[in-house]
Amino acid sequence: MKQLCVLVSAWLALTSLGCSSYDGFDLERTTTPPGEVSVTSTSVVLPQGVAVGVRVLAPGAEDPDTGDVTAAMRSSNPVVLQIWPTTEQNTFVLCGGSEGTATITVLIDGQDDESIPAVVGTPQGATVP
Amino acid sequence: MRSVSRLGMACFGLLLTACPSDQDPLGTGELGKGDLRVVCATDDAACAPGAESLDASVPLAVGASFRMTYDGPVPKSPAGGLSTMVLFSGSPAMLSKDEDQFIAWIPGSVAVLARTEQGTVTDFLHLFVSTIERVELDSSDEKFVVGKQKVWQATPWGPQDTVLAGSLAYAWEVEGTAVAVAATEGRSVTLVAKQPGEATLRALSGDAVGEAKITVEVAP
């Protein structure tokens, strides 16, 4: 009985400390865009006009109900950087609308997780690829 | 028994050919979901006669207008029916949209995306926009004699000897009194031969100019 109490207490403590939520994420490119494009969990750089598919990877994150997490991404300046959801869960399209800087906020299960600086540069090349 | 065996083999064959891992991606979109294409207009110099659409790898001319189509998955709308799909530019400054026509403004790669009205992107691709390096004017080898009409066509060329796609607006100029402009349509101009002599035809599109020397002969 004592062991059961310890186990239940430990489970309650871990749950309240957020062990069922997420502890880190990464961004994975799902397309190969033209030009100099860099997508990491700490910065995003892409030319104006260029779009790139990005999947949010949250290793170790598990929702007790669905066994999965739901990620969302938001742009602080959609004129500079557009972010669109796709039909694939946790996969988004980032698109450089105009030159400038913006901040991407990644939300895991509805909670602000991290802000990523994004830079949209000049249009990619004027010669035929 | 033999027919059952044949049926079984046929089913197995069908299963093999239907295996998703053996199939090509559905379309041209970079997410591998749908097919986005540039529609061939009648005055598009890059389109082969009778072609309905262009591959996205064909560069488009700065200043060109064109339409695009999307063929692929259409998610359900919140109301339950199919969503209305919208094609839009990744950078309106580089590629604007006026009703169903895109217009290219700045050279470089620019994405065109297909999304639902609710904002879910199903697929996208990149188009390449290039400046016009030169305009060529071509006509038939037929002699141009007084009283007859003849058609010249303008072709926009980009870097690396590539014909540029899209519909362009041309301004036509004639130098000399041997010919006059009878009609213009898209990238074509019809000239009428007025009198024997030499003339120069110019086609202007943006900063690019094409020129052709024309000789009018007396009627036989």
Concise summary:
Chain A is 12% helix and 41% strand.
Explained architecture:
The complex is a heterodimer of chains A (129) and B (220). With 129 residues, chain A is mainly β. Helices cover 12% and strands 41% of the residues of chain A. In chain A, the strands form 2 sheets. Chain A has a 5-stranded mixed β-sheet, with no helix packed on it. In chain A, strands 1-4-7-6 form a 4-stranded antiparallel β-sheet, with no helix packed on it. The longest helix of chain A has 15 residues, at 2-16. The N and C termini of chain A lie far apart (71 Å). Chain B is mainly beta and 220 residues long. Chain B has 2 domains: 6-130, Immunoglobulin-like (Sandwich); 134-216, Immunoglobulin-like, CATH 2.60.40. Chain B has 1 helix and 18 strands. Chain B has one helix spanning 2-17, and strands at residues 35-39, 53-54, 60-61, 65-66, 68-71, 85-89, 95-98, 101-104, 108-116, 121-130, 134-138, 149-158, 162-163, 171-175, 179-185, 188-193, 197-205, 208-216. In chain B, strand 7 and strand 8 (101-104) form a beta hairpin. Classes of the chains: A mainly beta (129), B mainly beta (220). Chains A and B meet through strand 6 and strand 7 of A and strand 9 and strand 10 of B.
Which tags fit this structure?
heterodimer, A: 129 residues, mainly beta, five-stranded mixed β-sheet, four-stranded antiparallel β-sheet, 9 strands, globular, B: mainly beta, Immunoglobulin-like, four-stranded mixed β-sheet, 7% helix, elongated
- Approximate helicity band of chain A: 10-25%
| Rounded radius of gyration of chain A (Å) | 19 Å
The class by helix and strand makeup of chain A works out as mainly beta
User: For the record, what CATH class of the largest domain in chain B applies?
Assistant: Mainly Beta
SSE order of chain B in H/E notation?
HEEEEEEEEEEEEEEEEEE
CATH topology of the largest domain in chain B: Immunoglobulin-like
- Let me know the number of strands of chain B: 18
The total of beta strands of chain A comes to 9
Instruction: Give the overall form of chain A.
Output: globular
The global form of chain B is elongated
Sheet-strand content of chain B, in percent, reads over 45%
The H-and-E topology of chain A, N to C, reads as: HEEEEEEEEE
Give the name of the CATH architecture of the largest domain in chain B.
Sandwich
* Number of domain modules of chain B: 2
* pLDDT averaged over residues of chain B: 89
Quaternary state reads heterodimer
Count up the helices of chain A: 1
Largest beta-sheet details of chain A: 5 strands, mixed
Low-confidence stretches of chain A: 10-22
